[in-house]
Amino acid sequence: MKVVMIGTGYVGLVSGVCFSEFGFDVTCVDVDQTKIDTLNKGEIPIFEPGLDNLLERNTKAGRLNFTTDFEGAVSEADAIFIAVGTPSRRGDGEADLQYVWAAARQIARAAKPGAIVVTKSTVVVGTNRKVADIIREENPDLDFSIASNPEFLREGSAIEDFMRPDRVVVGSEDKRAEEVMRALYRPLFLRETPIVFTGLEDAELIKYAANAFLAVKISFINEVANLCEKVGGNVQQVASAIGLDKRIGGKFLHAGPGFGGSCFPKDTRAFASTGAKFGAAQRLVETVIEVNESRKENMAHRILEKLGPDPKGKTVCILGVAFKPNTDDVRESPTLAIIPILQKAGITVQAHDPEGMEQAKPQIDDVIWCTNAYEAAQGADALALITEWNEYRALDTTRLQQAMTGNVMIDMRNIYQPDEMRQKGFDYSSIGRA
């Protein structure tokens, strides 16, 4: 079976490489010639652990190819995946689907009879039906099937998520689409992975509802952390205990500076916008969006408060710019909301991130980017640990103290133990713990 993946962004690239690892003949198509040239050299334009090895193996095996020749690739494909970007639309927060519509028009002109068109991009309810309508309008005689196959890939763990998912969701309304999708995911079926077949609208909703629910859990535990700080509680103990309840579960109950990245902020906005559009307001999700944005601002003010009544002229070390570890993605990262507030207060920011600095540099000015955590701490009055990279989990505290001018440490990921850090001489504070 020949598979074409339209779009070599995060979802398209990971999905295309993993399908080739299953043994399928995969061609990834993109309009960006530079990106295609990079991939054809065996270089990965994103940071995702293990992806480079899979790409190299399957390219050498002849199962994986990259091209800008849309028509040539699509004309031979049995399954055509749309995996283009769907950024938030300015004004209403709904997903901008212009790239999906463009892909559908091109598919209509190039696809062979019997092809399956699969939407992999995260799209709002009704998108798959409109994709089908566009194809029919452009090419009324084309025999094709439509399917929705939302992705549930976590950045930093995407290969594992694709190869060993909790479930695969497929929305379809004809037997041919279902049979092709079963064949594509057959390697997972042999591992007894649940494959959930639904209608098109259900599949579209499942993606948004899942991410919205996880965002709710994150904001919930952050609100609990605020209460813990007021009453002398420990949010880690609270989260651990409630997470043992199988109805709740322990995942996404880690207090911190708020969620970021390419999915949760965009998807919660789109979900709330869809609810408003159809007269079914998602009030809980709307509140989560507000809570998360204010959370990032509050984290910046926590740093300012620790610097005293006149923070102007002081230096802060920031550890972690990517929105989470094991990725270079800085989109809507809490750090990129925190730094400008500090700078507006007259603070010099020295920052380090193992992978995210190059992505962050074009988005934020006047930051001193450093080669490691200790260089970033040099002369700093305070240190804020924002992203829980492994290399920040066992920092040499003596070396930090020697580098820093002050002794303030704000641990926004609760990596270290308060008593131990205070015994070592740090003015230490964390999230939701006394």
Indicate the proportion of strand residues. Answer: 5-15%
Shape descriptor: elongated
Work out the helicity level: 40-55%
Distance linking N and C termini: 58 Å
Please identify the top-level CATH class of the largest domain. Alpha Beta
Number of strands: 14
**CATH fold description of the largest domain:** Rossmann fold
- Quaternary state reads single chain
Low-confidence parts: none
What would CATH call the architecture of the largest domain? Answer: 3-Layer(aba) Sandwich
Number of domains: 2
Q: What is the radius of gyration?
A: 24 Å
- The spatial strand order of the largest sheet comes to 3-2-1-4-5-6-7-8
Give the helix tally.
Answer: 18
> CATH superfamily of the largest domain, called what?
NAD(P)-binding Rossmann-like Domain
Rounded average pLDDT: 96
Main sheet: strands, sense, barrel:
8 strands, mixed
Characterise this structure.
The chain is α/β, with parallel strands linked by helices. The chain has 2 domains: 2-198, 3-Layer(aba) Sandwich (Rossmann fold); 283-429, Rossmann fold, CATH 3.40.50. It has helices at 10-21, 33-40, 51-60, 70-74, 98-110, 127-138, 158-163, 175-184, 186-189, 200-231, 235-243, 264-277, 283-306, 334-344, 357-360, 373-377, 397-403, 418-423; strands at 2-6, 25-29, 64-67, 79-82, 115-119, 144-148, 168-172, 195-198, 315-319, 348-352, 367-369, 382-385, 408-411, 427-429. Strands 3-2-1-4-5-6-7-8 form an 8-stranded mixed beta sheet, with helices on both faces. The longest helix has 32 residues, at 200-231. The protein is elongated. The model has no long low-confidence stretch (mean pLDDT 96).
